[in-house]
């Protein structure tokens, strides 16, 4: 390693928290309930509050209007599993060893939001698509391993390992082309949901988002008089994308692909509205911080067909371009977040952990110290902070396919390596070129070299974490 890279690595490590010895404190009385809502493969442009005039999302639009809309919110990776790990840990996926889908499971050495909040006397629940480890103990595969939510601080669990159809989630839908799943047969053997250690076998028909919310609502009701944390991770609109007839009707002028895609998003939006209504019915909406985002850009097939949308941004899922990682996002906390707030400061799924840790006055003890890559979002939401003071690192790796995509955003500049075999290195100024039309890698050689050194230092730091530097044995 060159002296320059070593120096950059040292600076990087210090900036993300190496060496900080912090101690957990008692939860403040003002600490809110926390709900993290996430959709799956929903593009930046696939929601009304980002300007889509075709998809009906009144509840998400109301949530964004009553809180803050994030115009530049990034998933930590351009695909599902890595981003999910980042949401719970505040760390870049490459630190976690989760480089792509089904390539690993969340390590028990990681400290999750659920574990942190349990120490602060929160009740914890997970609902929906886990995808950072298998949820069934006898589920065997050549990739990944058993690492269910219950191993990571969640008490109430209603979870699937990975994708299910967005309508009738236990049944393979008509028209689904798969060697292992035939239409009408059980989806991947049937009964994909595990509910507190047992296969769920009832109330699995119809809209999958409703199936999930039917388990969330009782959890919220049971914990209305104490603090709770819920991760609600929908499968919508990940393939197989299917909508019920009543949800397709508003889109009758469109073809079947759009009817199903738009319809299942509207069905999910309805359930988000149901959750918001329940918080108000119970009188806890002012005590509850609700975040919403997607896990990555729009799915490849539907984006290529012009159905799913990254808005004006280039690329989609599995791309290191902005369209692969920029996602729709908003947050609501009545009485704390000013209605109609909007920020274009770059924010990310890695920011959930440090934001919530600050709100509940929690920090690591000496034996648990480790790099936290995110920032506290509240100063950004309040408008006190106008720019991000930490670099952002993204990655997607499947070396057996020749895929080694990665990028770093430092200030307004982004250096990226395309996530494909023999992918090219490209450099963009996102302040003047947000849609990534003008590659500066040749015209700005000094800047390219500096960004390359930052990228190498960041990746080296993540490799140290991945190899065990952050865990005590």
TrEMBL record:
Give the enzyme class: hydrolase
PANTHER family according to UniProt: ARYLSULFATASE FAMILY MEMBER (PTHR42693), ENDO-4-O-SULFATASE (PTHR42693:SF53)
Superkingdom of the organism of origin: Bacteria
Listed name of the protein: Choline-sulfatase
Q: Which organism is it from?
A: Rubripirellula reticaptiva
Q: Extract the InterPro entries matched here.
A: Alkaline_phosphatase_core_sf, Sulfatase, Sulfatase_N
Q: Which UniProt keywords apply?
A: Hydrolase, Signal
Which gene is annotated as encoding this protein in its UniProt record? betC_22
Q: Molecular function terms in GO for this entry?
A: arylsulfatase activity; choline-sulfatase activity
